[in-house]
């Protein structure tokens, strides 16, 4: 599945470069408008604060921030839409023609809930950049998701809290299992070592210790059936999950439920967004999109999900 360097260069120069040249002009125009509008908002904010004597400082700051965000989204919307259709869609098809890309689609909310990884209320749910297909015999789908809930502070003020923002992946898992296995980033052991691990064991119910020190440093595993957790998390799979975490350079959440494998990468949903303040004509920029797609699609091969010696048939 990984794209070869020679294929990458051929596709980049033969197919994409002419389209990127046209989009590059749109990018420059959008970037100038964003910079100009930001400068205008800053000047207007400072003038207002000056003549108001600094009154309503917090409210003015919030309004200026919101106005800047609105202007940013307004000026890049057309460029962003055309980038995803003309570049990202073609890139996905070039990697595997059987993959289907939908820029406005997302993993359904019920699938996200099914993963069991984020057990909380959901008040806002949005998905985009949905890619579906099969790698060998294994179906896979993934998209960017933004999931938020409404919370209330001690003064009764309500605001949105982000539950998850990043890339969410769902694929079939070939082994039988009865109890869910949930895997979370292990911040306690990573930053506090043995002490963090000891405290974690004291306060966490269902925590399962694994044999791999490298895996234990990155993740914590929860299951009602430790034997089954060890059966699913073979040494090879633990090693590959550690590699995935390092290559993603972002927190990674994993669950085995309902004979599926769910992977949530908290990357802020930026992997497939067009650059605004870098040239689209840079090969390094293009290579970044390729590497992110390859990282996700290679999960099937890296975790041996096409291997059917434990077939469920």
Structural write-up:
- By secondary structure, this protein is of the alpha+beta class.
- The chain is 50% helix and 22% strand.
- It is built from eight helices and nine strands.
- A hairpin with a 2-residue loop joins strand 2 (124-135) and strand 3 (138-152).
- Helix 1 packs antiparallel against helix 2 and helix 7 packs antiparallel against helix 8 (283-302).
- The longest helix has 47 residues, at 5-51.
- The model has no long low-confidence stretch (mean pLDDT 85).
Radius of gyration: 23 Å
Helical run tally: 8
Secondary-structure-derived class: alpha+beta
How many strands in all?
Answer: 9
Order of helices and strands: HHEHEEEEHEHEHHEEH
As a percent range, the share of strand residues is 15-25%
The low-confidence parts are none
pLDDT averaged over residues: 85
Biggest sheet descriptor: 9 strands, antiparallel
Strand order of the largest sheet: 1-2-3-4-9-8-5-7-6
From the N-terminal CA to the C-terminal CA, the straight-line distance is 26 Å
Q: Helicity level, as a percent range?
A: 40-55%
Overall 3D shape: globular
Keywords, separated by commas or semicolons:
313 residues; alpha+beta; nine-stranded antiparallel β-sheet; 8 helices; 9 strands; 50% helix
Q: Can you give me a brief rundown of this structure?
A:
This protein is an alpha+beta fold.
Draw up the topology in text.
Blueprint: H1 5-51, H2 57-95, E1 100-102, H3 109-114, E2 124-135, E3 138-152, E4 158-172, E5 181-185, H4 187-203, E6 207-208, H5 213-218, E7 219-223, H6 226-232, H7 235-248, E8 252-257, E9 260-265, H8 283-302
Antiparallel strand pairs: 1-2, 2-3, 3-4, 4-9, 5-7, 5-8, 6-7, 8-9
Helix pairs in contact: 1-2, 7-8
């Amino acid at each position: 599945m990984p794209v070869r360097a020679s294929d990458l260069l051929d596709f980049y120069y033969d197919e994409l470069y002419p389209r990127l040249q046209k989009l590059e002009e749109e990018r420059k125009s959008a970037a100038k408008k964003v910079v100009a509008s930001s400068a205008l908002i800053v000047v207007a904010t400072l003038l207002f604060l000056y003549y108001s004597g600094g009154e309503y400082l917090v409210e003015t700051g919030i309004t200026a921030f919101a106005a800047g965000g609105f202007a940013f989204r307004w000026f890049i919307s057309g460029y962003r839409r055309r980038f995803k259709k003309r570049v990202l869609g073609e890139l996905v098809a070039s990697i595997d023609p059987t993959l289907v890309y939908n820029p406005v689609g997302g993993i359904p909310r019920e699938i996200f809930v099914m993963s069991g990884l984020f057990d909380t209320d959901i008040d806002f749910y949005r998905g985009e950049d949905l890619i579906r297909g099969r790698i060998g015999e294994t179906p896979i789908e993934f998209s960017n998701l933004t999931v938020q809930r409404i919370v209330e502070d001690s003064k009764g003020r309500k605001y949105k809290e982000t539950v998850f923002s990043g890339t969410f992946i769902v694929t079939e898992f070939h082994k039988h299992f009865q109890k869910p296995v949930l895997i979370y980033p292990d911040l306690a052991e990573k930053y506090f070592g043995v002490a963090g691990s000891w405290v974690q064991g004291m306060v966490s119910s269902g925590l399962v210790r694994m044999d791999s020190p490298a895996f234990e440093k990155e993740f914590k595993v929860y299951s009602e059936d430790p034997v089954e957790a060890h059966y699913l998390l073979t040494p090879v799979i633990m090693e590959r999950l550690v590699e995935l975490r390092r290559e993603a350079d972002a927190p990674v959440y994993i669950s085995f439920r309902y004979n599926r494998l769910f992977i949530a990468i908290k990357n802020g949903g930026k992997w497939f967004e067009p650059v605004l303040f870098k040239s689209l004509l840079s090969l390094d920029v293009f290579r970044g999109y390729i590497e992110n797609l390859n990282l996700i699609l290679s999960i099937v091969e890296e975790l041996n999900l096409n291997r059917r010696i434990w077939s469920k048939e």
